[in-house]
Amino acid sequence: MDKIGLKIDKNHEFQVYFNAKLVLFDQKKPIKGGILVQNGLIIDVGAHINGDFTLKNEQKCKFFDINEQVLAPGLVDMRVFMGEPGHEHLETISSVGDAAAAGGVTTIMTMPNTKPIIDDIALVEYINSRAKQVCKVNLHTSAAITKGLNSAEMSEIGLLKQAGAIAFTDGRKSIKNSLLFKRILSYSKSHNALIIHDVEDEDLAGDGVMNEGLLATRLGLPSKPKIAETIMLERDLLLAIDSQARYHVSQISCAESLTSIKRAKKNNKNISAGVSINNLTLNEFDIGEYRTFLRLEPPLRSEIDRTAMVEGIKTGDINVIVSSHDPQNPDGKRHPYADSTPGAVGLETLLSA
Length: 353
Description:
- The protein has 353 residues and is α/β, with parallel strands linked by helices.
- The chain has helices at residues 93-102, 121-134, 157-163, 178-190, 202-205, 214-219, 227-243, 255-265, 277-281, 303-315, 330-333; strands spanning 14-22, 31-38, 41-46, 61-65, 70-71, 75-80, 105-110, 138-141, 168-169, 194-197, 210-211, 223-224, 246-249, 271-276, 320-322.
- The protein has eleven helices and 15 strands.
């Protein structure tokens, strides 16, 4: 045994990566340190691993100075859209893995909004099987809550979970029918399944493309009020409390939604919330002169709302940060702002942002 308490494999050289900005769960900020690797596996990590690091039996080590780059656990991204199957020109299982690896994301959960929709056992098994063959990172798939994303008929949640779906969501779509959503939560509880929901009342949202406010008026763009998010979120939270089911709101974007989440968590420990890196780092003024690559869902909100999202991460009321990676055809962005396709890539920039 060596001084780090691990059995040494004398057939393999050790690699020491030092002089890193080391991110550890028990530290409030990065510290200077490194990692020890043997045969492709990380076997030790900490501030004690530096350029002078030695093993007790003086086994040979190869040293790599990584010049104060960030060294962190691989990120997990719970909201990734890809094109395969059906829209491979947007993103394939292979290319989404490449993008994730480039951005330091080692586990992703993909959305079911493909063609065909991931609402069938065979499709779940296909995605998981193909991902093991061609994807550089861990890829898990979610399945549609409703068949065909039609918000009318519940998918076979129990069977889809057995087939390998780790969560259930309609991706970009919200389920308007409250009775149906109540039944979905009740049924999912019996299978201990996680329901992930986008919250937007499409009637209130209308044809809005950016946050409601003075800036939208100045730019002459149709706006989307925050209440379109909060009114559906309040409904979901009341139903989640009533059922005590596992419920995750995929993205919130405003201070009012954060207040609702805080209150609801007191009555159901199975409620959690996410936020897009876009709504954490950008506000409505970043749209500037109609930058269509910032046509996003939910829209960029005010600076007050952005700082509320940051505070929600600090306090733990928001549990998850997602990239909301949603690649679009360039032609879809080459339109006036109101006519452009919402969505943007995000896997490669999530960590740096």
